[in-house]
Specification:
With about 300 residues, the chain is α/β, with parallel strands linked by helices. It has helices at about 40-50, 70-75, 90-100, 105-120, 135-150, 165-180, 195-200, 215-225, 240-245, 275-280, 295-305, and strands at about 5-10, 15-25, 30-35, 55-60, 65, 75-80, 155-160, 185-190, 200-205, 210-215, 230-235, 250-255, 260-265, 285-290. The protein folds into two domains: about 5-90 and about 135-225, P-loop containing nucleotide triphosphate hydrolases (Rossmann fold), CATH 3.40.50.300; about 225-295, Alpha-Beta Plaits (2-Layer Sandwich). The strands form three sheets. The protein has a six-stranded mixed beta sheet with strand order 6-7-8-3-9-10, sandwiched between helices. A four-stranded antiparallel beta sheet has the order 2-1-4-5. Strands 12-13-11-14 form a four-stranded antiparallel beta sheet, with helices on one face. A hairpin with a 2-residue loop joins strand 9 and strand 10.
Amino acid sequence: MIVQTINLTKRYGKLVALNNLQLQIEDGECFGYIGPNGAGKTTTIKILATLLQPTWGEARVCGHVVGYESRKIRPLIGYVPDFFGAYEDMVVQEYLEFFASAYNIKGQQRTRVVGDVLELTDLTGKRDALVDSLSRGMQQRLSVARVLLHDPKVLLLDEPASGLDPRARIEIRELLKELRNMGKTIIISSHILHELAELCTTVGIIEGGELLLHGPITEIVARVKRGTRVHVRVAEQQDLAALLLERTRGVKSVSPVDSAIVVELDSNTHDLTPLAKLLLDNNFRICELKEEEVNLETAFMRLTKGIVQ
């Protein structure tokens, strides 16, 4: 087990930022950490990065206990905060060489490692550019390049796509996919849920400092799915169509939502063919008839209540 927390709790006076967090992340996982603002995501990541001490409980990284063995943990992790500090009058290559020297990487090895991470993050063409002249997206890639210099086992990424334009988000996502394929264990917090669903193997949903669910995305979606919901639109006389559907066997409820009729079926009804046949036999022209998709965003909205600390 690469990362484990046991009853991990963090208090700031009366404020409970984390409450008995139980988390387990295996080697090579890409773990998506999601929750409203103030849910406890950044607090968790900072504790794992050895930047905060828990009030009580325990956090382990690669078998080492945060607080007692932090010096052993730091060479094994790479922490990317959500905000990149500016480095005036320092070019990209100098910036990376400075951090490489902090990890005691010297001489030709330093030159090779800096070149490798520049190539991996697609920043080779910017090696002589001033760091504070880079776009927000390039600065985020440079921040990832910095934490790769010492080849860490675990990457802790706090909102790496925050404030990025669509192209920069896609570039960061593709970089993280490549790092995942290289076998890195990645813990990433983000509000861009559809991208996490594409990138992550497992997710954890946290709110008010408490972990609500943790596991593979397919399992979480299956647990929050509440039967089959169908969206129906007809060309005219939608009210009559709704009344007809409401009296149909296997239908639990019918409700209008915007320009559609939302039909909730009972747990034993999955075939939509009878609904379509019923409408056609009664001379309704069907514009849309499709099952509502349940995805990570749906699960998040159904599980959370907007609670912040």
